[in-house]
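Researcher: Here's a chain I'd like modeled. Treat it as a single chain, no partners, no ligands.
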Amino acid sequence: MGRPLRIEYPGAFYHVTSRGNERKAIFLTQTNYERMIGYLESATERYGAQIHCFCLMSNHYHLLLETARGNLRQILHHLNTSYTNYFNAKTGRVGHLFQGRYRAILVDKDHYAMELSRYIHLNPVRAQMVKDPLFYPWSSYKDYVGERIGWDWVKTEWILGQISRNEKRARKGYRKFIGEVSGRAVKDPLERVVSSTILGSEEFVDWVREKWVGKRAYHRDIPSLRQLSKWTGLLSIQREAESLFGKRADESRRVALYLSHRLSGRSLGEIGNHFGGIGPSAVSQNTRRLEERLKGDAKLSEKVGQLKKILSE
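Model: Modeled as a single isolated chain. Structure tokens:
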């Protein structure tokens, strides 16, 4: 199995999951949970981790984590290695406690932090352990609704601030935000992850690709790096077409649609949504028509060739 792509930079925001080996329990007693919470707190002190949300389940845990120093590996090494050493010593076992590498999804927090926080806090409800996340002691939900005092290392301010600047209103609003879907099936926001690595808007994915992926060498052991490097962002295609044909030109739109179909790796539905909500069949039809024109229009064919070259660099 290929290695996961780790994109690290100061201020990066992640959803992190780590599971027990063979999905076995990693927390057996109250003391086990408390010890991991102690390691979470020490990660904020020693490594500058900013933990926005957490939920410890019996055989895995979730974190919504921001790395002020761009040191995700260091933080996760501290958490998983320290807890493994503690757990093995306590139970008399040896070897790996966690299943392979942790999963870390780079997140566009402006678009997905709220949704992910709800997904994380409702884990115990989905597992039918409690009916209300307030009754689950091993998550950060109590910190969000003001039912626990003293855990200042849990950074609730940013997410609550999306609701209101008034703390009391924000906590009340967050409780309502959770209650709106509690007990109902909630779609997993992680289903929208791109290349098993990034969750965000098209602008965010393009920014990550251009700033952090483009500078990294091809590596055959990191399939998500190959995938991200291979795909060209819809916004990049649209901008390049507009620079050549004009921002308001119909030809610019037709060419951008065509190149998006051929180069982006996105579905017809995703492409159609990006270009104003047109249907998948309209995207396909545009491609067929433009390809026919390219056969008989040497000037247009040359311009489209130039764009392909620019976008593949």
